[in-house]
Design a protein that fits this description.
Layout: H1 2-18, H2 25-30, E1 42-48, E2 51-57, E3 62-69, E4 72-81, E5 84-87, E6 91-98, E7 101-106, E8 114-118, H3 127-132
Antiparallel strand pairs: 1-2, 1-8, 2-3, 3-4, 4-5, 5-6, 6-7, 7-8
InterPro entries: J517_1871_lipoprot
Protein name: Lipoprotein
Organism: Marinobacter algicola DG893
Amino acid sequence: MKKISLLFFAIGLGGCVSSPTIPDATEFVELNPDPPPPASVGLWTGAMGPYISTIEITESGRGRLCSSYASWEGVMGVKYSSGQLHHVGFGSADISIEGPTLVVDPDDTLYPTYRFKSDLDLVEAADYCKAQLGSG
């Protein structure tokens, strides 16, 4: 029994060490957005793990990230500033454009690089996100 308890403790401790950092929402609220590169303005749909997600980036540097999977759906704000996209959930991420693809590379190495396709008509977006982002 003692060995089992130590095993669960070690697994739990490992989980704490490898958990993503929790961004401070205060930093996000106080962040002043910059106008993003013109090629990044628009609607972009891709996968974030099991979620179908759509990112909206506006000329003002503000936008939204909408995600949908099974019974969870939600919309959260994003801001472009200092060359990065900022989000309360994944913190900050470098973004780049590769042809018709928005590449989102979070600073937190526990998150993979995400690839979003240009989706101005929300054809690939989840139904929930179509409704939230204006084409529902």
